[in-house]
Structure formats: structure tokens, C-alpha cells
Design brief:
The complex is a heterodimer. By secondary structure, chain A is an alpha/beta fold. Chain A has 2 domains: 310 residues, Aldolase class I (TIM Barrel), CATH 3.20.20; 91 residues, no CATH class. Chain A contains 16 helices and 9 strands. The longest helix of chain A has 20 residues. The radius of gyration of chain A is 21 Å and the shape is globular. Chain A starts with a strand and ends with a helix. By secondary structure, chain B is mostly helical. Chain B contains 1 helix and no strands. The termini of chain B are far apart. The longest helix of chain B has 9 residues. The chains are: A alpha/beta, B mainly alpha. Chains A and B meet through β2, β3, β5, β6 and α8 of A and α1 of B. Chain A: It holds the Pfam family Radical_SAM.
Chain lengths: 421, 56
């Protein structure tokens, strides 16, 4: 099992208090036991473990992603020491390190930008859309919206950074998708991505129980995304904008290798999270499943990455697109969808033995993209391919016998249900 | 139903010239740059398994 990137929680506190944040506001309280900032001892151990893993797996490229909390609450010296040490240790062994940071953008100034340029740290900024939408969720500790400050930070970054920062937005289906898309254009953002809100079978994106099952089955997210996809696809040649989610789905439909990610496709998910104290965990979005859910007992001090991947939840996460419920395994679009992000499949009753809360959204979006690609292909390429119908796939899923194959208790079934409470 | 979902253009002897000024051109070029091995299109990939940063 290969880990090719680490999400490093260099600070466990944040200067924002976003209502949907899985670190602070969706039930998990483990951050309270974390040191506020990562120590030098911990980062040195991270680099040692990374070298150990790269040599063990013969990796030549490794990616470090600085994350939080808010990673810019950490000192500048920390980054200088981290990057210089990692480059020295890894380059000596012909391993190249890449660096990125996901920030809320509030503290970006010229000095930070120069530091990021010098250390070759690529920046992503979280911004959920236009002011009314962003400021509904992304607020400070006095409940004041962050939009104006984030846009100011983005513009400073655009002015001083050599690599233009990207934007990461959580989808809000109540917003106007075209207004969102036009904002990205107006802000001259060339690379952005859209995140499914962190929700699962039990809890809605606000961390509360879903009101009724019809809410769960709605396809408001795909309808919202399709409006953006259509205009983006039409203007793509002119705008030169990249939307990661759409490019990924296009790549998967066209059968390009390495198009998958932790959301879609069938690839393994080779990233781990290092908490501020050096604990090794899996994707933070799984904190939504309960207080302490992601705590594995593994630590950078005592465990190699390979050992950490042997822990139950890390192993399941790594194989997110392999260990799926029966319905997913038989779904016609499995190779593109891959079951969706694992956190969206959890319920306290069945563990991870469910289709995603966003299942029908995935079907509608993926089928729409497949149909759009098909219809835009030059005629000579259409032979032997067919567009597929949304109703056809949903009909299949709705009529699927969920007890199919359950007489034989499969390895998947045991793994998935073992997380039920 | 499974077999008809993917559109594997490589199996059709893909010719990039057929996609000049087509919406998919950049996706196909990106795949070709990497010899069909890697689609290096996405730069905002912090939660992705194999991020495609701009090569510094």
C-alpha cells in the first residue's frame, strides 16, 4: 500500500469558525487535546517517516499538504525549516517533494507570498462563492462573514505569487450556480474545485439528522453542478478554467489513467493525515461519524506509514473505492463513480455498507457529463459508444435487490458493517 | 449496461487533429503529454490522491 501524500495539520486552531467545519463544529472534539501548533520534533519525525516510506515503496515524488486549523497561524520559520529539511533529506535520495497549503486566505500578504514563492508552496484558498453565500457559513469567532477579507487575500496572492492560487468551494445548492461561476471568472480564478458538503446517511451538512428521506433522495446538488458544467464546457476553450471535479469525471469517462481521486474512480486513496501532535489519522471528513472516530492509535513516533495503513479505518479509507455495498458493486457507472467519497456512505446502523447519500446526484451528474461528451464527439468516434440514460441507471438501482449475494457474507460486507454502532 | 458507459477514445485510434477547437482538446492534450499515462490538468487538488500541482 502506497502513501503518496500527507495532509499535515500544522495548526489545530483557526481564525475562522465555519459552521460546517468537521474539525470544530460537527461533534468531534479531539482538537481540544491537540497542541495549538506542530513542534519541530514532530515535523522532523514526519520527514524521517516519509523517507522511510519512499525508500520502502521506491517513490520518487511525494506531496506535503499543509493544512489546519488554519496553517498560516503557524510561524514562517516552521515552513522554512520544514521545506529545507525535507528537500535536503529527500533530494539526497533522488526523491522530489512538492508542497501545497490549503488556507482560508485571511492572512495572505506580500511577505507570506514571497515565502511561498521561495519555498515553492502552492496555495489553495477556501471561498464558497459570492458574499451572501460565503458569509452564511464561513464566519469568524464573532460571527462576522469572511468574504471581503478572503477576496483581499486572494488578490494579494494573485499579485505576488508565482503560481496562481486555486479556490476550493463547498457546494451550496441554494446559491445561484451561474452567479458563483461568474464570480470565479471575475476574480480571474483559473483553477477551482467544488466539494460535496460533508454529510452522511445519518447527518445532513449542518450535522443534524435529515428531516425526511425525500430530502436525502433529492438531486439538488447535481442540478446545481450541471448548470455550471454546461456553461464551463461551452466556454472551456476561451476561459481556460479548470474545475477539478469535472476534469476528473471526464478523465474517468474517457478512460485516462490517474483520473480518480478520493471522491470518484476506482483508484486507491494514498493519503494520510498527520495531526498536530503527530497522530496518524485518515481524512478529517470522517470526524463527522462521531467524536474520536478517526483516532487510530497510530503515531508518527511509533508507526511507519505502512503500519498505520494496517489500522482498520485507514485500510478501509485506502480501499474506499474497492470495499463497496452490493448495490454499488453492480451499478452500471461504478467505474466512474467508485461509490463516491467514503464519508458520505456512513450510517450508524450499517457502518459503510450503504450507497452514498449523494448516490443519485452522482448518477445524474456523471450521466449528464457522459451524454455531453458523447454528443460533442466528432461522428467518426461515436461508433460503438452509446449515451446512457439517467432513468435507466436509477431504475436499475431502485429495483436492485439489496439482499443479492448476502447469503454469502462477503469480505466487503464484514469490513463495511464492522463500523456500525 | 456496464460496458457501454465508458467512452474509450484510445480504442478508436484517437487523432488529436480531429479535436482542434473542441471542448475536450485540453483534456486530450494533457493525457497525451503524459503519453496517455497521466492527466495533468488539475491544480486545485488538495484533497486528491495524486495532486497535479504545477511543476515547480
Amino acid at each position: 500500500m502506497i502513501v503518496n501524500s500527507l495532509i499535515i495539520k500544522v495548526a489545530s486552531r483557526c481564525n475562522l469558525n465555519c459552521s460546517y467545519c468537521y474539525v470544530y463544529n460537527l461533534g468531534d472534539k479531539t482538537y481540544l487535546n491537540q497542541p495549538k501548533l506542530m513542534s519541530d520534533d514532530t515535523f522532523i519525525k514526519i520527514i524521517d517517516r516519509t523517507l522511510e516510506h519512499c525508500l520502502e515503496q521506491n517513490l520518487k515524488i511525494f506531496t506535503f499538504i499543509f493544512h489546519g486549523g488554519e496553517p498560516m497561524l503557524q510561524k514562517k520559520e516552521f515552513y522554512i525549516n520544514f521545506v529545507n529539511t525535507a528537500n535536503t533529506v529527500l533530494n539526497k535520495n533522488s526523491i522530489r517533494a512538492r508542497y501545497a497549503m490549503q488556507t482560508n486566505g485571511l492572512l495572505i500578504d506580500k511577505k507570506w507570498s514571497e515565502l511561498f514563492n521561495n519555498l515553492k508552496i502552492y496555495l489553495g484558498i477556501s471561498l464558497d462563492g459570492y458574499k451572501e453565500i460565503n458569509d452564511k457559513y464561513r464566519v469568524d469567532h464573532k460571527n462576522k462573514g469572511s468574504f471581503d477579507k478572503v477576496v483581499k487575500g486572494l488578490k494579494i496572492g494573485q499579485k505576488f505569487l508565482k503560481s496562481q492560487p486555486g479556490i476550493l468551494s463547498v457546494i451550496d445548492p441554494s446559491s445561484d450556480p451561474i452567479k458563483y461561476y461568474n464570480l470565479m471568472k471575475d476574480l480571474r480564478v483559473k483553477n477551482f474545485d467544488l466539494l460535496w458538503p460533508h454529510a452522511n446517511i445519518d447527518l445532513n451538512p449542518e450535522g443534524k439528522p435529515w428531516e425526511n428521506s425525500s430530502t436525502k433522495k433529492s438531486i439538488v446538488y447535481s442540478d446545481w453542478l450541471i448548470k455550471i458544467f454546461d456553461i464551463w464546457y461551452k466556454e472551456k476553450k476561451q476561459t481556460n478554467m479548470n474545475i477539478t471535479m469535472f476534469n476528473s469525471i471526464i478523465g474517468l469517462i474517457l478512460n485516462f489513467k490517474y483520473s480518480g481521486n478520493e471522491d470518484f474512480g476506482l483508484d486507491e486513496v494514498g493519503n494520510l493525515v498527520i495531526e498536530t501532535n503527530g497522530d496518524i489519522q485518515v481524512v478529517g471528513a470522517l470526524k463527522l461519524c462521531g467524536d474520536g472516530f478517526t483516532v487510530s492509535g497510530a503515531s508518527i513516533k511509533d508507526h511507519s506509514f505502512s503500519k498505520a495503513l494496517e489500522t482498520k479505518l485507514a485500510n478501509l479509507y485506502y480501499n474506499s473505492h474497492k470495499y463497496l455495498c452490493n448495490k454499488c458493486m453492480e451499478c452500471p457507472i461504478l467505474e466512474v463513480c467508485g461509490g463516491g467519497p467514503i464519508y458520505s456512505r456512513y450510517s450508524s446502523v450499517n457502518g459503510f455498507n450503504n450507497e452514498s447519500i449523494y448516490c443519485k446526484d452522482f448518477v445524474k451528474l456523471i450521466v449528464h457529463i457522459q451524454n455531453t461528451i458523447y454528443s460533442s464527439l466528432p461522428e467518426i468516434y461515436k461508433d460503438k459508444f452509446e449515451s446512457i440514460d439517467y432513468e435507466e441507471v436509477v431504475g436499475f438501482l431502485d429495483n436492485f435487490d439489496n439482499d443479492f449475494n448476502q447469503e454469502v457474507i462477503t469480505e466487503n460486507f464484514k469490513k463495511l458493517t464492522s463500523f456500525s454502532s | 449496461m456496464k460496458n457501454k458507459f465508458k467512452i474509450d477514445l484510445s480504442s478508436k485510434g484517437l487523432n488529436l487533429d480531429d479535436f482542434k477547437n473542441h471542448a475536450l482538446e485540453s483534456n486530450l492534450q494533457a493525457a497525451q503529454i503524459r503519453g496517455g499515462e497521466r492527466v495533468d490538468y488539475a491544480k486545485v487538488t488538495f484533497r486528491r490522491i495524486d495532486p497535479h500541482w504545477p511543476d515547480a
